[in-house]
Design goal:
Number of strands: 7
Order of helices and strands: HEHEEEHEEHEHHH
Distance between the termini: 68 Å
Number of helices: 7
Shape: globular
Strand content: 15-25%
Structural class: alpha/beta
Largest sheet: 7 strands, mixed
Oligomer: single chain
Helix content: 25-40%
Mean pLDDT: 86
Amino acid sequence: MKRSVLCFLFCVCILLTVFAEAKTLLPAGPGKQVAVFVALCDNEHQGIAPVPDKIGKGDDPAHNLYWGCSDALPKVMRASADWGRPVYHADYLQKKAAVLDTVVCTRADKAATVYAFAYRGDAIAACRQDFEEAVASGAYDLVAFIGHNGLMDVDLPEREPARGNTDAVVLCCMSDEWFSDRIRALGGRPVLMTQQLMYPAGKVFTEALAAWLKAPRDAAAIRRAAAKAYAANQGISVKAAAGVFVAPAAP
């Protein structure tokens, strides 16, 4: 067999191996593709009101407030009949040093698959950057950021305009003021943003996602779903909870 043919076959084998590994590390699921970037709560490296030490260590996803607690997204999906069993993909960590854990979970009705990434607390800037890159890339139907509003702590230049076509949710304190213009510059569309201090409970996201899946352009319905979930989580009225989220603009 000629050397050129052998070389071609070798390259094909390498590509197939890489493709197989990529599918193993982060398999594509059915339905809408949803990426969630979670910056782990970190008492030491983030400008937050301190939380109990056990849930405020940014290098311990298993016990972290935003990843390992009962209100956190992976645990909420695991406990809900609306979702299949979350699959943890530790091998993905070989590709992203800032990522400590990854979860893939598909809704029971196959309407969406969520890819959630837990970033070290001291890598919150990398988490935010990867969130913005995901918005700009158009690789997902919906992209979310969950965690501390790190943009409050830094002075960043404006993003270069991009032509993304992705909806975005940001669950952190006062996200509308700090994130919305950046998302729009990337070609994204903010569908759920906040205007007050808040705790980004996992069910707020899953309920907002369910409303978005039914009617992605019905911002009022998405806000109502988030408000009901937040009210239940915080033990407050739905009216008060609704005030946490930005009201949709009048048509």
